[in-house]
Each structure stands twice: as structure tokens, then as C-alpha cells.
């Protein structure tokens, strides 16, 4: 107030009104300039007073502008005053803001200093804060930054943030470059590395100095003290002994009780979940929309079914394993598979087999999402084609290629998109040294024309024009206005799929007029040019490295999906393996031939499975085959059990030898910051122990879930917990060791009765475990059929049909049924079995059964007479 009111009062009392009553004429001005003696001290004082009045007026305007900006978030034009006055006003308003309870922080960009000398960042006068800290959510571009997000607090500088979060303060320019120009929630953006506002959210580059945490460590740490059973500990959220850090966490790193309950709670610890409301961040730091993640998950589901279909049975002895089956997905795509699988819905069909195959995702060729979070299809983009440029263009084109080729794979629709490109363009999208090729370079698949790789742009554009001419003639013949009308008609068998051509701008520029002529009919003919770079007459979008467009108003996509070159290679490999093939299948030797040599594939790998050593049954029964349930003395526990506790119990059931805390967190919370994940598992362990003690009345430290300080492993106590999976595996082991068929059948039927469904129900982490144990039960039923067929062939067929109920796509089960029908001279039953398999595979998206299955059926339909015996 002194600065605002003092100058006018001083000037009015000492100088008075500085302006003259009458303004001088031009002649008087010339006389003054010619005779300096006419300029008196009084005149100079009045001129200086005028200057001071002008400066005071500017000061008032600057203050008024800062006050309006603070109150309304409107930024007025900057008044060109000396920097001293600007700094004075800024300091004044900042001081008032601090007094009013607001806080502000500055990022001083350090000057270049020698590497051997410590740099001291320069501090500048604070700038005003327009919103309180932590009042706004983390923006998507910051949440998906390679190193996560950091919310600015009082006292932060870019130097300090780089020092704490990246272990190298000299990396502050990377933080500045990553966030420059990003509009924050208070209306400002980072344009000066010396100025930050409290509450801003900054994206961070990757912290390269931090090695990745191994998902399944093989080396246990030194033996810690025995588990003190943290249920009775006064600090239930501390790290369990032997599996976590040896030093106590700092208060800043200790989550509140609410964070233990809420896996999605935000923590300012630099770790962000790779899955947000609109997409998924891959381990490579690429980002894909949920629509593309769903396509990847659907393709993975198809591939898992195909592996189940091809898996041979081994019945004598039955291999016993507890490790999960090999996953069909590379590590780069597993997080996308997990996120996309939650969006898939079962496909409706005629058979129960349809429940294991998802319906295709609704959005074809998704390229990203709009401002409302809705998926945007490549085919719905406006304009005549799409041209992408900017640092993120190459990554976006990779994602679009993956999305187009993944569309329609699940149902093998006739209208699956066809992509045409050149070898040079595809080489730019793939890693160095990977040869550009179609989905089926060895021509063993049925859809070898879905990715057409031509020699150069001239051939590609000619191919595009030929397709345009063909479709235009077809529309004229069918009297239709567009391809969609032709595809909707039932009297035309030739569907016209979406056609996408991908070219680099440098190659396509000399053919720009030809491409523009085709793109004019883009929607009517379903022809979609995609250009990497700028091309005349083609709508262009500039894409940043994270997939965000630089001009939000012009782009119909708020964020485009991106993929790295290795990610694209993994997607193409996944599509190649999932493509239907005229495969030979598995030809099974008839069971009555006992001369099969013993190999590694048919030798049982027996894992130590706990068995009850007491004549009394365990008080608790854990069921993991089917829905996970707990039963105490025959009564199910229906309330009070945390979902996380069920998951922990299921993991320990799958690993009878036990798991360390690192194993548990890597399995159950692979995308969560390690310390937070450990505490969540810790809480779930405590809750499971508490509910079991309360339900059974059995008290004591460390019971139900024991802890071995020598191996740092947690395991279920078999004396107190009986697991249906363990009983099934033990029954199979007894069947393998049985010396007569009766005792073998008894053990096998016991194992079959214990199988209540797939292991772990719908738990994401349990999918590959479920595959292992499903194969156990298929082998059980196949062995039952072998033992029953000589005297009871119909019961053998019934056993194999029960196995088919558990896995409707395993071809060897159908082959065994057809062989029994053939030996019983039932050709009609053989045909029905083959037809049933064809229908099941059709419902699941498959086109053909294997050649081996057809040969088996043909041999049963046309049996050769035994060779004539000569005397």
C-alpha cells in the first residue's frame, strides 16, 4: 500500500500538479532548444515529476493485472515496464499471496558449471500461484511419462527434482524439455525453467540409473529373524522381514491406512500405474489406447485356444506339474493383454465352447481416443486420407498398422482390413536388421494377403488404383453407392474389406495427385491412405512423442496410440502365430500299443505336494479349482474375506513350496511400486490369518500361513489348510504309482471329482496356471477312457466327453472318441464327432480342423480289412 499510495501523495504535496495550464507552442519549444538557459530548475523538476507519475501509473496497472489474474485466471497483456518494476510488483503480490495462505515455488535453472564443481541454482523472485497444491488430478501426458509424474511442492527447483528423482541434477534440461509448453490446471504453462508453480504436475524422463526389479528372484537374501506375525504388531503396514528393505521406510514413503485399502490411490513417489482410464503404458514407454489393448488381448485369447487345441495328451504316467504353462505373449505386451482382457465379452454361440472365446472388440482399427475418452477408428477420421508428422509420427503409424492387422483376427471375418505398404516403409517401422515381410512369408496360412509388401511406391499406388477401379465397377454393377451397401447385401459373396495403404511421404510425393484422386472416394470405396510425413491435399496432424497432437483443436484424436519398433515386431509375431494354418496336428498312437518309448515329454515330473499326516481332517478347506472359497469345519466363510486375501491364498496354493514376498508382489501387483505392493500383500496376509483365527478359534503366532526365515518363504500350513488342488495332484500321483487297474481307476475318479473348474477363476495372473491344471484333468479323463474301453467302451466315450466339456478345442480328445467309435463299427458316430469339432472350431473363429484329425476320421470310416492269412 505504501508503494501504491505514497508516490502520488509525495508528488502532489512537494511538486504539485506537474502539467502546465497551457501547452507550449512549437515556437516556444524551438526557443528552449536554442537557448538552454530558458530551461530552469523548476522546469526540470516538473519534467521529472511527469516521469514519476507515468511510472506510478504503470505500477498501478501491473498490480491491477496481477490481482485480476489471481482472482479470475485471466492473464492480461504484459506492460512494458523496466524489469526492476516488474520484479517489485511480482514480489509484492507474492508476499500478499503468502500472507493469505497461498504458497509458490520456483525452479531455478542452474547456469552451466564445470563437472567438478557443485552447481548452485539461482533463485528468482516468486511468481503467484493460482490454485492450491494437489487440488487437481494428474494429467494423462504426465501420468504416462517414462519416469512417472512429480507434483511440485514448495521449495522445488528443476535442479532439485532431477537430483532426487533422477539421481543426477544435471538432467534438469530433460525435465524442462519434456514439460515445456504443457498447460497446467491453473492456466499457466512451463515456459521459463526458472519458474514453477506449487501444484504443477511435471512428467519425468526415465530414471536410467535404476535397474528393473526382477519379477521372480532366484536368490534369497540372508536369513532374517523369524516372522513375528505382524497381525499383533503395533505397526501393521511395516515391511515383512526377510522380503523387503532392511532399513525402515521414511515417513514420506509410508502410506496411510487408506492407501493400503485403495490400490488406485495416488502417491507422489514417482511410480504411476501403467493403466489409466483411456490407455496403457507399455514397458517400452509406448502408449496404446484401450481399444488396441482389447485387440491384443483378443488375439492372445485366440492363441491360447489354439495352443490348447494342439496340446497332446500324455496318459501313462500323467505328468504332475505346478509351474504355469508358457504364456504366448512376450513381456512387452502382457500389460496390454491384462488391461484389454477386462474389456472383452464372451462371444454368443451355440455351444458352451463359445464362452471361452471373446467377442471381437467393437471399434475396428482404433488409433486412439477423443476428448471424451471414446475410441476413434482409422476409418472414421475426416478428410481424404491421413498424413502424420512430428517426432511421434513413426510410433503412431506403427500402432495404426498393428491395430489394422489385429482387427477381425478373433472371428476371422471376411472383411478384415488389408494393409499394403512398401518394403522401404515397413523397414522404417521395424527394428534395424528385421527383414520386412508379410504376416505369412512362408505361405502356410490362409490369410497371407492381409499384409502385402510391394517393392516401391509406384507399385503400391498402382495396386491402390486397381483396387479402386475394381470396387467402382462393383458398385456400378450392384447399383450401390458405397461398399457398405454391397457388404450388407446377401446376394453377393465377395465382401470388400477395408483397404489401408501406408507410404512414406518422400516416396509418395511424386504420386500425390494419384493418391489424392483415390482418397476422394475414401469413404465410398473404403480405401484409406496413411502417409508418414506431409503430403499435399492430405489432412495432416503433428504428433508429439507421447502421442498427443500439438494442435488439439484441429485433431479429432486427443491422444494417438504409439508403439516402438520392437513392440510392433512382437505384435506381428503374435498375429503370425494366431493365423489359422493347415497344420498337421497330433496323430496319437492307439492306446493298446504299449511299446511307446519313454521320453521327456511323457515322463511325469512329480513336484512335492503336501499331504495330511494327521488322521483328523484340516479345519480349513481352501478351494481354488473354480471359484475361490474358504470353508471352516464344513461351513463356508461368506463375508469378511478380502479379495486380496483370496488372491494371496490362491498363489500359495499354486506353489506348495511357498513364495517370498518379492514373488507374491511380482505376481499380484506387477504394476505397483514395490514398497506399496509389499504392504498390500502384507495387509492381505494379516487379514487372512485374522479371519481364519476368528472362524476356527485357533490362535497362535504364524499359524495358517507360516514363514520360514531360512528361505524367506510364506506357505500354507497343510496341517490346518486342506487345498483341493493338492488333493487332486496327490490322487493323480497315486494313480501313476498304482499296480492294478482298479486302484488306478479309483484314484483317477477321485481326481476328476475334485476338479470343480479352472484354477483361480477369472484372476488375471492365474490364466497360465489354469492351463496347467486343465491339462491335468484332460489327462485324467483320457487315462480313465483307456482303462475302461476294453470292457466298457461307452463309459470310455463318456469320460472323453466330460473332458471335452472342460476343453472343447483339444483335437486329440475328438480323435480318441472317433477311434473308439471306429473300433465299435459306428461310422455315423464318427461323422457326428467330426462335425461337432468343426462346429466348435467355427464358433471359436477357427476355419479348419487339422489334417491329422481328418485322416483319423477317414481311417475309421474306411477300415482296411486285415491282411489275408496264408497257410
In short:
This protein has 871 residues and is an alpha/beta fold. The protein has 28 helices and 19 strands.
Structure description:
With 871 residues, the protein is α/β, with parallel strands linked by helices. Helix 23 runs antiparallel to helix 24, helix 26 packs antiparallel against helix 27 and helix 27 packs antiparallel against helix 28. The longest helix has 32 residues. The protein has 28 helices and 19 strands. About 15% of the residues have low confidence. Strand 14 and strand 15 form a beta hairpin.
Main sheet, how many strands, which sense, barrel? 6 strands, parallel
Radius of gyration: 36 Å
Task: Please list the strands of the largest sheet in the order they lie side by side.
Answer: 9-8-10-11-7-12
Principal-axes shape call:
flat
Low-confidence stretches: 94-135, 209-271, 350-355, 584-606
Number of strands: 19
Mean of the pLDDT scores? 76
How much helix is in the residues? 40-55%
Seen as an oligomer or otherwise, the chain set is: single chain
Fold topology:
Elements: H1 2-14, H2 26-34, H3 41-72, H4 83-99, H5 140-143, E1 149-151, H6 158-166, H7 172-179, E2 201-203, H8 257-261, E3 279-281, E4 287-289, H9 290-310, H10 334-341, E5 366-369, E6 375-377, E7 386-389, H11 393-406, E8 418-422, H12 423-429, E9 451-454, H13 457-478, H14 483-488, E10 499-504, H15 505-508, H16 512-519, H17 522-525, E11 527-532, E12 540-542, E13 559-560, H18 565-578, E14 620-623, E15 629-632, E16 635-636, H19 643-654, H20 661-668, H21 674-696, E17 705-708, E18 713-716, E19 721-723, H22 724-737, H23 741-754, H24 767-788, H25 793-806, H26 811-823, H27 827-843, H28 851-861
Parallel strand pairs: 7-11, 7-12, 8-9, 8-10, 10-11, 14-19
Antiparallel strand pairs: 1-2, 3-4, 5-6, 5-13, 14-15, 15-16, 17-18
Helix pairs in contact: 1-3, 3-4, 6-7, 9-10, 9-11, 9-18, 11-18, 19-21, 20-21, 22-23, 23-24, 24-25, 25-26, 26-27, 26-28, 27-28
Amino acid at each position: 500500500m505504501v508503494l501504491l499510495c505514497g508516490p502520488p501523495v509525495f508528488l502532489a504535496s512537494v511538486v504539485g500538479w506537474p502539467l502546465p495550464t497551457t501547452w507550449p507552442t512549437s515556437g516556444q519549444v524551438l526557443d528552449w532548444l536554442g537557448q538552454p538557459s530558458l530551461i530552469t530548475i523548476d522546469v526540470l523538476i516538473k519534467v521529472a515529476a511527469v516521469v514519476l507519475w507515468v511510472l506510478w501509473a504503470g505500477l498501478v496497472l501491473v498490480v491491477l493485472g496481477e490481482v485480476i489474474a489471481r482472482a479470475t485466471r485471466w492473464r492480461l497483456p504484459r506492460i512494458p515496464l523496466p524489469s526492476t518494476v516488474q520484479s517489485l510488483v511480482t514480489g509484492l503480490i507474492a508476499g500478499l499471496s503468502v500472507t493469505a495462505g497461498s504458497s509458490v515455488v520456483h525452479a531455478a535453472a542452474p547456469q552451466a558449471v564445470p563437472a567438478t564443481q557443485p552447481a548452485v541454482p539461482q533463485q528468482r523472485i516468486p511468481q503467484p500461484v493460482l490454485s492450491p497444491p494437489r487440488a487437481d488430478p494428474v494429467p494423462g501426458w504426465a501420468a504416462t511419462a517414462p519416469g512417472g509424474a512429480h507434483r511440485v511442492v514448495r521449495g522445488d527447483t528443476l535442479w532439485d527434482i532431477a537430483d532426487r528423482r533422477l539421481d543426477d541434477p544435471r538432467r534438469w534440461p530433460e525435465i524442462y524439455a519434456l514439460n515445456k509448453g504443457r498447460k497446467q490446471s491453473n492456466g499457466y504453462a512451463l515456459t521459463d525453467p526458472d519458474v514453477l508453480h506449487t501444484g504443477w504436475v511435471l512428467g519425468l524422463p526415465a530414471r536410467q540409473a535404476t535397474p528393473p526389479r526382477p519379477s521372480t528372484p532366484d536368490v534369497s537374501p540372508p536369513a532374517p529373524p523369524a516372522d513375528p506375525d505382524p497381525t499383533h504388531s503395533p505397526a501393521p503396514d511395516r515391511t515383512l522381514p526377510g522380503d523387503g528393505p532392511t532399513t525402515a521406510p521414511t515417513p514420506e514413503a509410508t502410506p496411510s491406512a487408506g492407501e493400503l485399502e485403495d490400490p488406485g490411490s495416488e502417491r507422489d513417489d514417482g511410480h504411476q500405474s501403467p493403466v489409466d482410464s483411456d490407455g496403457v503404458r507399455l514397458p517400452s514407454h509406448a502408449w496404446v489406447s484401450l481399444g488396441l489393448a482389447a485387440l491384443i488381448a483378443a488375439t492372445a485369447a485366440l492363441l491360447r485356444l489354439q495352443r490348447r487345441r494342439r496340446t497332446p495328451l500324455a496318459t501313462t504316467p500323467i505328468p504332475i506339474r505346478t509351474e504355469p504353462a508358457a504364456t504366448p505373449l512376450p513381456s512387452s505386451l502382457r500389460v496390454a493383454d491384462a488391461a484389454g482382457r477386462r474389456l472383452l465379452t464372451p462371444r454368443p454361440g451355440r455351444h458352451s465352447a463359445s464362452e471361452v472365446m471373446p467377442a471381437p472388440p467393437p471399434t475396428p482399427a482404433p488409433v486412439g481416443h477423443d476428448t471424451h475418452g471414446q475410441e476413434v477408428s482409422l476409418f472414421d477420421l475426416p478428410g481424404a486420407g491421413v498424413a502424420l508428422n512430428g517426432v511421434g509420427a513413426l510410433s503412431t503409424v506403427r500402432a495404426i498398422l498393428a491395430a489394422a492387422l489385429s482387427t477381425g483376427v478373433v472371428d476371422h471375418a471376411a472383411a478384415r482390413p488389408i494393409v499394403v505398404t512398401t518394403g522401404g516403409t515397413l523397414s522404417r517401422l521395424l527394428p534395424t536388421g528385421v527383414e520386412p515381410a508379410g504376416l505369412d512369408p512362408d505361405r502356410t496360412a490362409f490369410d497371407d494377403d492381409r499384409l502385402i509388401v510391394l517393392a516401391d511406391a509406384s507399385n503400391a499406388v498402382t495396386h491402390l488404383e486397381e483396387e479402386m477401379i475394381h470396387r467402382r465397377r462393383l458398385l456400378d454393377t450392384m447399383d450401390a453407392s458405397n461398399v457398405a451397401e454391397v457388404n450388407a447385401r446377401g446376394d453377393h459373396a465377395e465382401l470388400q474389406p477395408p483397404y489401408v495403404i501406408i507410404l512414406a511421404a518422400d516416396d509418395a510425393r511424386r504420386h500425390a495427385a494419384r493418391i489424392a484422386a483415390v482418397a476422394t472416394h475414401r469413404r465410398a470405396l473404403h480405401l484409406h491412405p496413411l502417409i508418414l510425413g506431409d503430403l499435399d491435399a492430405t489432412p495432416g496432424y503433428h504428433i508429439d512423442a507421447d502421442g498427443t497432437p500439438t494442435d488439439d483443436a484441429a485433431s479429432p484424436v486427443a491422444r494417438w496410440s504409439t508403439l516402438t519398433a520392437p513392440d510392433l515386431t512382437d505384435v506381428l509375431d503374435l498375429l503370425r502365430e494366431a493365423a489359422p494354418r493347415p497344420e498337421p496336428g497330433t496323430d496319437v498312437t492307439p492306446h493298446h500299443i504299449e511299446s511307446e518309448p519313454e521320453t521327456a515329454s511323457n515322463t511325469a515330473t512329480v513336484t512335492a505336494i503336501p499331504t495330511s499326516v494327521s488322521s483328523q481332517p484340516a479345519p480349513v478347506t481352501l478351494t481354488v479349482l473354480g471359484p475361490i472359497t474358504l470353508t471352516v469345519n464344513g461351513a463356508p466363510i461368506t463375508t469378511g474375506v478380502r479379495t486380496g486375501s483370496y488372491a494371496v491364498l490362491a498363489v500359495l496354493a499354486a506353489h506348495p513350496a511357498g513364495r517370498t514376498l518379492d514373488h507374491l508382489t511380482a505376481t499380484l501387483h506387477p504394476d505397483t511400486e514395490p514398497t506399496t505392493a509389499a504392504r498390500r500383500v502384507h495387509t492381505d496376509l494379516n487379514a487372512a490369518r485374522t479371519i481364519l483365527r476368528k472362524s476356527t478359534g485357533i490362535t497362535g503366532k504364524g499359524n495358517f500361513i507360516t514363514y520360514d526365515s531360512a528361505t524367506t518363504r510364506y506357505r500354507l500350513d497343510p496341517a490346518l489348510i486342506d487345498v483341493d488342488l493338492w488333493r487332486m495332484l496327490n490322487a493323480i500321483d497315486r494313480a501313476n504309482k498304482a499296480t492294478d487297474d482298479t486302484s488306478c481307476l479309483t484314484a483317477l475318479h477321485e481326481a476328476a471329482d475334485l476338479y470343480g473348474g479352472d484354477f483361480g477363476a477369472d484372476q488375471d495372473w492365474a490364466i497360465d496356471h489354469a492351463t496347467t491344471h486343465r491339462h491335468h484333468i484332460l489327462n485324467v479323463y483320457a487315462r480313465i477312457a483307456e482303462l475302461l474301453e476294453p470292457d466298457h467302451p461307452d463309459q470310455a466315450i463318456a469320460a472323453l466327453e466330460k473332458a471335452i466339456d472342460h476343453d472343447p478345442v483339444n483335437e486329440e480328445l475328438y480323435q480318441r472318441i472317433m477311434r473308439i467309435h471306429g473300433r465299435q463299427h459306428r461310422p455315423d458316430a464318427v461323422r457326428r464327432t467330426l462335425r461337432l469339432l468343426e462346429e466348435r472350431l467355427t464358433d471359436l473363429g477357427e476355419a479348419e480342423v487339422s489334417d491329422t484329425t481328418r485322416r483319423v476320421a477317414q481311417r475309421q470310416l474306411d477300415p482296411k480289412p486285415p491282411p489275408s492269412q496264408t497257410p
